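User: I'm putting together notes for a lab meeting next week and I want to include a structural view of one of the chains we've been expressing. I don't have a solved structure, so I'd like a prediction I can at least talk through. The sequence is below, exactly as it appears in our construct file.
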Amino acid sequence: MKIKHKQVLLIVILLAILALACGLTIPREAITENIPTVAIRPTAQPTPVTVSLPNVITDEDLVLIELYRKVNPAVVSINLYIHQGGDVSPEGQGSGFVFDETGDIVTNAHVVQDADEVEVIFWDGAIRSALVVGIDFHSDLAVVRVNQLPEGVQPLPLGNMNDVQVGQTVVAIGNPFGLEGTLTRGIVSAMGRSIPALTPFYIPQSIQTDAAINPGNSGGPLLNLKGEVIGVNAQIETSGGNQSNSGVGFAIPVSIVQRVVPALIQEGRYQWPWLGVSGGSLSPAMVEAMNLSVQDGAYISEVLSDGPSIKAGLRGSSDTVSVGGRVVEIGGDIITAIDGVPVHNFTDILIYIALQTTPGQEVTLTVLRDGQPRDIIVKLEPRPDTQEVFP
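Assistant: Thanks for the context. Below is the predicted structure for the 391-residue chain, given as structure tokens.
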């Protein structure tokens, strides 16, 4: 008959109790000999968890850090002063950037136009008196000059307007609200905007950006990620009287900077070519009203008396009609090409005249008159110093 382990254990315990009661000593071996062994497994250790933290500085961060390091020394703060009754008073502040090694600095015309004294402050705190050498109100560009650049300051390179694309990353560097050396980042939001100049004319091919631009940024550079200037920050779109950035800023395009600034440095002014017409883009209502065979073009509403276009025989509107309840001008010439280059809207005319021609140059306008095409040669003239409505 087999004795179970529990019975053996019970007997041993009873004997131990009796032995203790009687003062007997039971060998340890007798107590543990028949006690079953229970295997105890060691407690499993938790597997270490590896947490991968993101890099603090990304590749794009490195690009911006290096760009700022290279570019910022060439971006300046411009302080303006006026003379009042024998006193010199602060007038305002703007930004600018070094254009060449001789000390010429580009800024906006509206930054320096009323200043009696101009001071340029560089990134390292060096202050230089500056002389205004040229202003162009039609492009809102100006050049001031310092006698000597601080050591190590190099001019900023200019980019190529043909390489600028909507969606590309851009940065603005300047002095918003007097905060020197501020970098903001954004994208090119749109291209080909026409923004008002300091005259009744418009600045074509301007760049729209959502990079934060605020008062004090005016005249500073808008740059691509290679550190090339693609525009000069000039304006912001505001609403409700709020003068801070609302995500819509505008920069004068580098294509105009390349034409205007060298002339300001050499001659103190730039002469813009002038066609002497006002108008707009051809609309479907005009096409219907005049029974036109084309859908696109630049419509001429008015031709300025004594201007180059009226001398060449261009015609403006002669009447108005109602189309679907809308008053539409009719009778004016429709420009469909200039020097063989197709014209789709009135902005095409502005850009071509501004960037492809000079005063005294002859251009051939292909126009549609009374439904028939014809070529008209116009000799462009310099823009008049005072002009109210005509590009």
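A couple of points you could mention at the meeting. The chain is about 20% helix and 35% strand. The CA atoms of residues 308 and 380 lie 6 Å apart.

User: Perfect, that's what I needed.
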